[in-house]
Amino acid sequence: FGGDFAKVSNCEKAEKYYRRAAKLGHAEAQESRGRLYEFAEKPDYRRARKWYARAFKQYGSTNPDTAYAAYRLGWLHERGLGGKKDIKTACLLYRKAAKAGCAEAQRALGYLYDKGLGLPRSYAKAYKWSARAALQADETACNNIGVLYHDGKGVRRSKKLAKKWYKLAARAGSIIALSNLGGLYEDAGRLKKAVRYYRRAAEAGNKYAAKQLKRLDK
Fold this sequence. Notes:
This protein is mainly α. The protein has helices at residues 2-7, 11-23, 27-38, 45-59, 64-79, 87-99, 103-115, 123-134, 139-151, 159-171, 175-187, 191-203, 207-216. It has a domain at 1-101: Tetratricopeptide repeat domain (Serine Threonine Protein Phosphatase 5, Tetratricopeptide repeat, Alpha Horseshoe), CATH 1.25.40.10. It contains 13 helices and no strands.
């Protein structure tokens, strides 16, 4: 019921009803209260952590309804918001949420494996988890798979497959994928298409694409 108030941006009323439901032990309300604190005009990350943790501990990450709370809690730990930075705890929370089917956590876990942050670097596992998120139409994960194919990390290098995944990501709304497509077409000598994709990315706010577009327009 609190969600109805959140939809009309009445944060005070939404918070009131979430508080009541959260105190009664409703995990979804606890997660929603965490979101209210995290995404408020003036975020309170400490309280966001508190309510995400309550939702997660109540039902655990195996419950799809609370897996997102585990993911958000991991995100706050990864960035050191609302408490100390703890990448290992973030990895643990991402893994639990990812196994419960949370696409955002799957993508985040794939990224950490790719960069070797808090986990031994493994491009094969980066691909595995990114692919799981991509199957749920996560545009960032689709782009990340494109990068793995472009660089030949964890998979056989293939610009054809990189382009395929970049296009899927771009259609789903990824701005960086538009820029990456511009780079692919530029490398192939297809400058008109490169300019087209760089322009689309630049118009959406991508600074790198804007710089490349300016260079090609000279």
